[in-house]
Amino acid sequence: MAALINAILSGMSNTAVACTLKGAQTAGCRMISFGTVFMGTAALCSLAVIPVFPGMRSIFWSWSLGAGMGLIFIAGLMFTFQANKEGPPSIVWLMVNMGLIVPIALMAIFYHEPLYLSDLLLMGTFILMLWLFRQGISTAGDFSGGRPLYYVLLLILVFLTNGLLMFGFKLNQILYPAASKASFLASLYGSGCLLFLAVAYARHRGRLSQFHDLKWGMAAGIANVLANLFLQGAMSLPAVVAFPIMQGLSLLGGVILTGCLYRERLNGFKALGIIAGLAVVLQAVLR
C-alpha cells in the first residue's frame, strides 16, 4: 500500500512539473539558465534529505548509474524545451508520459516481469487516453505549424529519453536495492547541473540568470525531486502498475491544471481523455 501511495504522490508532483515547464515557456526562460537552476535546486534538495532517507549512501555503482541517468535527464529536458518551441506543449507532454511503454517493455524482455490480460487492458486504456487527448488538442486548434519532420523527430527523442529515464529508476531498485534513493538522485541531478554549468559558462561567460529563470527553475527543481523521491518509493511495484499510475495522474493533472491556469480550451475529446485517465488509475489500483 505504501508503494501505491508513493506512485500516486509521484504523479501529483509531476503535475506540478508540467505547470512549471509551461510557465517557463510562457515566461520565455532560457534553456541553459533554467536548466542550471532546475538541476542545481533538485541536487541541493536531494542532498538535504540524504540524512533522513534509509539505505547505504556510498554504493559507487548506484552513484555511477545516477550520474549517467543525469545525462539522459538533461537530454530529455532539452528535447522537451525545443519541442515546445516547435509545437504545442500539450502534445509534448503526451509523449513524455507515453514514455512509460519503454520501461514496461524492457522489464518484460530483460527481467521477465509478467504481463497479465488485465495489464494489456490497462495499457490499452492508457493509449486510448493519449489518443483522446491528441484529438482534443487538434480539435481545439492547439497545434501549430513549423517544421513537421523536425518536430516528429523531437517527439520521438522526448519519448525515448523519458522512457529510458524511467527504466533507470527501476534498474537502480533491482541492481542496488540497499542504496540510498536520495543519494542516487543527488548524483543524477548533480551531474546534470555540472554539465549545464559548463555549457552556461561557455555560452554566456558567467552571465547571471534572469529572475524568471531562477523562479521557474527553482519551482521545477523542487517539484521534480519530490516526484522522483516518491517514484523511488514505488519501485517495488511492477513497472506495468507503477508507471501508468504515475504517468496517468501526471498527464491528467497536467492537462487539467495547465488548462485552468493558462486558459487552454477544453472540449469533448479532452473530457473523455480525463475519464479514460481516471480509468487507468482505477485499473492499476485494483490490479
Content-based structural category: mainly alpha
Distance between the termini: 12 Å
Q: Give the strand content.
A: under 5%
> How many E strands?
0
For the largest beta-sheet, the strand count, sense and barrel status come to: none
Q: Mean of the pLDDT scores?
A: 80
Question: What is the chain-wise order of helices and strands?
Answer: HHHHHHHHHHH
Unreliably modeled segments: none
Q: What is the count of helical runs?
A: 11
- Give the count of structural domains: 1
Shape: globular
Query: What percentage of residues falls in helices of 4 or more residues?
Result: over 70%
What integer value in Å does the Rg equal? 18 Å
Question: How would you explain this protein's 3D organization?
Answer:
With 287 residues, this protein is an all-alpha fold. The chain has one domain. 80% of the residues lie in helices and 0% in strands. It has 11 helices and no strands. It has helices at 2-27, 31-49, 60-86, 89-98, 101-110, 117-139, 148-175, 181-204, 211-232, 239-262, 268-285. Helix 2 crosses helix 9 (211-232) and helix 3 (60-86) packs antiparallel against helix 7. The longest helix is centred in the middle third of the chain and has 28 residues, at 148-175. The protein starts with a helix and ends with a helix. The model has no long low-confidence stretch (mean pLDDT 80).
